Amino acid sequence: MASIINTENTANNAKPLLPKLDFSDGSQELIVEFGGGLEALIKQEMLKNVKGAKQTNVKFPKQINKHPATIRDLIIHLRNFYVKEKPELFCTGDKVRPGILVIINEEDWEIVEDNSDKYDYELKNKDHILFISTLHGG
Amino acid sequence: MNCARAIELRARLAQLRKEELEIEAELCSLEASQSAALRSPLPSQESANVLSKEEIRRYSRQLLIPEIGTKGQKRLRDSSVLVIGTGGLGSPCALYLASMGVGTLGLVDHDAVDHSNLHRQIIHTEAACSGTAKVVSAHMGLSRLSSLCSVRIHNVLLDSSNAKGIMRGYDVVVDATDNAATRYLINDACVLLGIPLVSGSAVRLDGQLTVYNYNGGPCYRCLFPTPPPVDTMAGCSETGVLGVVPGIIGCLQAMETVKLITGRKKDECPSLLLFSYASQPHFRSIKLRSRAAGCAVCGDSPTVTELVDYVAFCGSGPHDNAPDWKILDDPAQRVSCNYFSAVRSITPRRRHLLLDVRSEVEFEICSLPNSLNIPLDQLGRRQDELEKAIGGLDGGPVYTICRRGNLSQLAVRHIRDKLGYNECYDIARGLVGWQDEVDSDFPAY
């Protein structure tokens, strides 16, 4: 029960925690946006308001461990360094939690990735990735 | 102006409005007591009847649009739509469906009208706030608007035992509900009955809209095979909602319903429409996947072939928006509102601290005099401030309060465990209890 509200605030870092990423194989710029309430999970200093959209520019390696960087790598990176607390509200293990849709360049990631595993989607420079939570209220 | 006459007229109007509701309620219960056999059946197909003179006059502005025309208008008249939920989404949706000429409307809701509904649930009125069932109030709103629309009401909580019986036979179902369990229930029933589903949702400043189970497109389970964690299912009563946001989504649900009935919808790809108050542009359309072959209910080899227990499936149900948590095991760490009221009247102010741990916006709505507001999630960051306040107490007690007595228990645990201060008690039932037990003039929200 105590996990529902974490009374410890861990988002006190004045400066963003920059992860150790290896850019020796080149880098790419991604725009990552959060919606449907997910923006509240992200460290506020990491987010900027672009025409009402809560988003962040992520400089990300082109390759991770000699393989093209995938959306799986990005999700783990976001979980580790962008989510301020309660990572279980963003991820279940290294997958996005149930109730979150991943939208790549305005399309459901199920359409974008024709591979069997959508987590294998290879990121491209300037990709716009939207994580949005489904709403239930009315 | 003749003041006495104006006062008299207002009083008469108030009386008439009350009577109108009473008549409506009696009429509704008469209709409900009719046996199913006596009720007119749902229209099963397009009738051959041409539009009457009255229909032509009433719908003329719609008949002039080639996309609707006489053919579309007849289809609307001969169609039946079930709107589940007559709240922020269902109110405008049902009003527009009736006004545009849908011939048969079904309404499902189990709730009664409350003052906190009126800013968004525009089919209901102040007069209905003294206990009128939402479906009765909505029935009145619709019958005032159109005598051409046949309305049938279901004053029940939709569940696995009654859903298919209520939904069977309708051409379109509109999901205008407010919780995940009911959304899965409606989705599965629509798949099992083969009915397209127009699903809308709205919270705070955001809205979403999708048509499910139509023309090779996905169902709700294709997109969301697993229910989300219980503590991510925020509802309007907890997080708030701007009145017009469900209004916008509800209107769009009515529009999508028209597209389904007139046949326009079959030319469109499945999509999710996102709306936000703050974003520019306000709307974004996301292209969605097709039906998932592996979907548990609409897939090639479904595992869900009958309705299941959706409250168990989701871990929470339609009534669980405001749970009563029991976090503090020791009853000695909790006091009642009445007890705290007595403490206030006998203890000098400096000898106790009332700590209100709600968010700042909630604290601004209403608070008890001389309380210190530190939201629960700031207790760690503002520890110095808290310790200073406790230091001035000479060992006197700290009482924590919130809206319902849930978060305040976590605050007690924090102060006892993290600060080591054991003279700390939670006020059970919080400000809701304060209004109920101590001061009926204290505002509720």
From TrEMBL, chain A:
- Record flagged with keyword tRNA processing: yes
Q: Where in the cell is it found?
A: Cytoplasm
Q: Name one Pfam family in it.
A: Urm1
Task: Name the pathway.
Answer: tRNA modification; 5-methoxycarbonylmethyl-2-thiouridine-tRNA biosynthesis
Q: Which domain of life is it from?
A: Eukaryota
Q: How is it modified after translation?
A: C-terminal thiocarboxylation occurs in 2 steps, it is first acyl-adenylated (-COAMP) via the hesA/moeB/thiF part of UBA4, then thiocarboxylated (-COSH) via the rhodanese domain of UBA4.
| Primary localization class, coarse | cytoplasm
Ordered alphabetically, the record's keywords are: Cytoplasm, Isopeptide bond, tRNA processing, Ubl conjugation pathway
Swiss-Prot/TrEMBL GO biological process terms:
protein urmylation; tRNA thio-modification; tRNA wobble uridine modification
List the GO terms this entry assigns under cellular component, sorted alphabetically: cytosol
Residues the record lists as 1-thioglycine modifications: 138
Task: Enter cross-link residues for Glycyl lysine isopeptide (Gly-Lys) (interchain with K-? in acceptor proteins).
Answer: 138
Q: Which PANTHER family match?
A: RURM1 PROTEIN
Cited function: Acts as a sulfur carrier required for 2-thiolation of mcm(5)S(2)U at tRNA wobble positions of cytosolic tRNA(Lys), tRNA(Glu) and tRNA(Gln). Serves as sulfur donor in tRNA 2-thiolation reaction by being thiocarboxylated (-COSH) at its C-terminus by the MOCS3 homolog UBA4. The sulfur is then transferred to tRNA to form 2-thiolation of mcm(5)S(2)U. Prior mcm(5) tRNA modification by the elongator complex is required for 2-thiolation. Also acts as a ubiquitin-like protein (UBL) that is covalently conjugated via an isopeptide bond to lysine residues of target proteins such as AHP1.
- Which family is it part of? Belongs to the URM1 family.
What name does UniProt use for this protein? Ubiquitin-related modifier 1
The protein's organism comes out as: Coemansia reversa (strain ATCC 12441 / NRRL 1564)
From TrEMBL, chain B:
An example Pfam family from this entry, by short name, is Rhodanese
Q: How is the cofactor bound?
A: Binds 1 zinc ion per subunit.
Main location (coarse class): cytoplasm
Which GO biological process categories is it annotated with?
Answer: protein urmylation; tRNA wobble position uridine thiolation
Question: Catalytic positions?
Answer: 236 (glycyl thioester intermediate), 402 (cysteine persulfide intermediate)
Q: Which residues form a coiled coil?
A: none
What GO cellular component is one of the record's annotations?
Answer: cytosol
Compartment(s) of residence:
Cytoplasm, Cytosol
Q: Which domain of life is it from?
A: Eukaryota
All residue ranges annotated as the Rhodanese domain in the record:
348-443
Which species is listed as the source? Coemansia reversa (strain ATCC 12441 / NRRL 1564)
Q: In which pathway does it act?
A: tRNA modification; 5-methoxycarbonylmethyl-2-thiouridine-tRNA biosynthesis
- Keywords noted in UniProt: ATP-binding, Cytoplasm, Metal-binding, Multifunctional enzyme, Nucleotide-binding, Transferase, tRNA processing, Ubl conjugation pathway, Zinc
Write down what this protein is called: Needs CLA4 to survive protein 3
* InterPro entries from the UniProt entry: MOCS3/Uba4 (IPR028885), Rhodanese-like_dom (IPR001763), Rhodanese-like_dom_sf (IPR036873), ThiF/MoeB/HesA (IPR045886), ThiF_NAD_FAD-bd (IPR000594), Ubiquitin-activating_enz (IPR035985)
Which cofactor does this sequence's record say it needs? Zn(2+)
MF terms (GO), sorted A to Z: adenylyltransferase activity; ATP binding; metal ion binding; thiosulfate-cyanide sulfurtransferase activity; URM1 activating enzyme activity
